[in-house]
């Protein structure tokens, strides 16, 4: 079995941040989303093949087994399923494949999911009933015996219904962007893609079930989320891009008399440093580094909060090998460019 890691999206829901970098490269829980996935797949001794696009291919230099599709913008993208189908043909794959969307974070490993595979199509499932920030109707929801409650009778089960972005949702159990497709489904996938049908992987699961093919599900425990669900990133979906260069990406958004700004500071870099007549608060979200306050430096890491008094000079340093992300909140003053 090989894994196709889908990293070819354009992150349009993340606004200006998504225009600057792929979701797979956002840092969460100490590493990029992509690296988390690759480590879990490597632990299962599954070879990974990364599928990305022409616009973001530079982010994947240094990774093995990268296929770059020709799309340079959202409107040129053939779609996730077409990318999978093209990779199967290009690599002449003749073995079952694990397909995983590279914008998903899993705290648990993949051992239970992989070991539950019986040769029938398999879908990763998660219970979001206790997560009010997640809306099942905006995801692919499932129905199976016991899906009316939590926990279900068994961790692995046959799926009796699957609908993408359906109101009302079938249940509070959603697909989490990880699938195993047996090679027997490849001809069906090729036919499906030629018909130019809806190109989300979940739509293909619906298609298989409509053809009478039995599909199994496996419930993931621990924590799971699509990076787009991160509240601190969603805030800036309607923000504006201030800067993007080899040092950092900076976006902000006005909220009444306040300005909320996010900075993604790249490894080994530091901010310009400045002072201003209003106070400010820095919230460090991901990563590790140092902050300088009037010449004094101290270590900062995720979940640290640093207040900055008016006219206090401050500068942030990324001393790690991963992006450092922090949010600042301050009163509006003058004009920012």
Describe this structure in words.
The chain is α+β, with helices and mostly antiparallel strands and 337 residues long. It folds into 2 domains: 2-231, Spore Coat Polysaccharide Biosynthesis Protein SpsA, Chain A (Alpha-Beta Complex); 239-331, Jelly Rolls. Helices cover 17% and strands 36% of the residues. The chain is built from 7 helices and 22 strands. The protein has helices at 15-20, 33-43, 80-91, 111-115, 186-194, 201-210, 231-234; strands at 2-6, 27-28, 31-32, 47-53, 66-69, 97-101, 104-106, 122-127, 140-144, 156-164, 173-181, 216-219, 224-226, 240-244, 248-255, 258-265, 280-286, 288-293, 296-301, 305-308, 314-318, 324-331. A 9-stranded mixed beta sheet has the order 5-4-1-6-11-8-12-10-9, sandwiched between helices. A hairpin with a 2-residue loop joins strand 2 (27-28) and strand 3 (31-32). It is elongated and about 70 Å long. The model has no long low-confidence stretch (mean pLDDT 92).
